[in-house]
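User: I'm writing a tutorial on reading structure tokens. Could you give me a worked example: one chain, its sequence, then its tokens, then a sentence or two explaining what the tokens reveal?
Assistant: Sure. Here is the example chain.
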Amino acid sequence: MNIEIKNISKKFGETKVVEDISFKVEKGDLLSILGESGAGKTTILRIIAGTIKADSGSIIIDGKDVTNISPDKRNIGYVFQTPLLFPHMNVEANICFSLEIRKWTKEKMKERTKELLELLHIEGLEKRMPSEISGGQKQRVAIARALAFNPRVLLMDEPFSSLDPRLREEMGALIKKIQEKLKITIIFVTHDRDESMALSKEILLISKGKKLQKDSPKNIYYSPKTKEVAKYMGDCNFISGILSDNLFKTEIGEFKVPKNTNSNFVLLIRPHQIKIDETRSGYLIESCKVIGKKALYMVNSKKTQKTFLVEEFSNNILQTGVEVGLIFPKHSIHYI
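And here are its predicted structure tokens:
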């Protein structure tokens, strides 16, 4: 189902938590809302679900304004940060809870439970109590419960934050498969940029209740609109210079820019886009951090004393103090 959020704002007391945010999610897409703790991510999700009311703005689902419709009439599934299973009910009863409220027959509930147990790979757990299953299994049950009544939209609020890294990656891959199979629209809240990059068709990055950029993972990483977005999405090298006519002159070269370009801009290049050339000189290796086959170098320019962050995958680790050259491919440079 298509979802359109129009100019929603929300204050708690005098604190602006969400400020004039608009975005759209196409049917069957997975959008991540990414931002630091306190950015307003969960508030946006709760406004969409209808559990809190925005001070202004509207929620449109499939062309219908649901802003003033009660949560139970919106046909939206919600997965919380913690599973919140009913401790006195077994797995099967937890999954069927919303179906009983909707007066499904026992036969249909049994059939639906079987489908969901298979979909979430938790077959054989239906008679177990929440206290008898692992944290990862509990979250799978919570997802099954949220999907049980065939919601139009699934909202997920940092559902894997309490899981270990390996299990988080496994659950992320499972959600992506489920989304592709069911063609369900998902809005996924996270503070983990790697998780958002791996899962999403689009990412909505917010900070302090404001929208910074909504774009594909590739574009938001390689073509950020601001320095703030660039830094949030990963390590950066910013290169300043002097603008003269259409020419931006920097220590790594001269670059043609469009006419009437604002002089207050910089160049961006990511660490892995810079290449080390051991046959050249002009730069000194200041430090090196090795993680597996990946080496993260701090490389200092002898001419300007500017330090560049360079990432390389190689078995040949360069030592501190070694003089090298750096190559800055022009096609890898982005203007901000």
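What the tokens reveal: The mean pLDDT is 95. Helices lie at 41-49, 91-101, 106-119, 135-147, 165-182, 193-199, 217-222, 227-232.
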